[in-house]
């Protein structure tokens, strides 16, 4: 966890900055329809996470397992969801632009279902509104960069204090900027997803990109919960 935090705190390399600059330029060539699909998909995902039941895990809270057993189960969870995401990326990537655009909402659904299962495995009840907000914060952290990433990392590390400022009811106004969330996620994934729209070649890109995104989410989620448990002292029934 400490190594992960140190890695996130490192400034972006010259190569990374060049790649990001090139990506932003390439993003201007992506059809507006594609940008719209991502934006609408993220908006739906946020709403479904905060107030819906489609991501609610069927797993039951098991507070008798050890921390090591929970970590092993989370690893297995992500392995299963990653295989699903790879298969989905191959299938949608092979079909060109129409099927490629269908990948956005499907991949978001896979990611969020995996996060809900992860929360339950670690012993947190994601039926609670603030736990859902924590899941969205993990998601933001995984797919953010620069100053935004540093701010989100600090938020996760001090979650118990930060959560005191948050509403406990989904009907109450939120202090989080979900519009910025949509834009940062869209910018993060645009380039690989654009390549996925190329018929045939998109299948290879789709499989690789979805595998990478699930690995990134796994590392972020596991370390976020580790950090939260250490901050709490013992964690929930740890």
Q: In short, what is this structure?
A:
This protein is an all-alpha fold and 238 residues long.
Describe this structure as you would to a colleague:
- By secondary structure, this protein is mostly helical.
- The protein has a domain at 67-167 and 184-229.
- Helix content is 74%, strand content 0%.
- It is built from 10 helices and no strands.
- α4 (67-93) packs antiparallel against α10.
- The longest helix has 32 residues, at 201-232.
- The protein is globular and about 50 Å long.
Q: Label the overall shape.
A: globular
Residue stretches low in confidence (pLDDT < 50, at least 5 long) are none
Computed Rg: 18 Å
Oligomer: single chain
Helices, by number, come to 10
Which H/E pattern describes the elements?
Answer: HHHHHHHHHH
Please give the share of residues in helix.
over 70%
Q: What is the percentage of strand-forming residues? A: under 5%
- How would a crystallographer describe the biggest sheet? none
Q: How does the helix and strand content classify structurally?
A: mainly alpha
Head-to-tail CA distance between termini: 17 Å
Secondary structure tally: strands: 0
If you average the pLDDT, what whole number results? Answer: 78
Protein name: EcsC family protein
Organism: Alkalicoccobacillus plakortidis
InterPro entries: EcsC
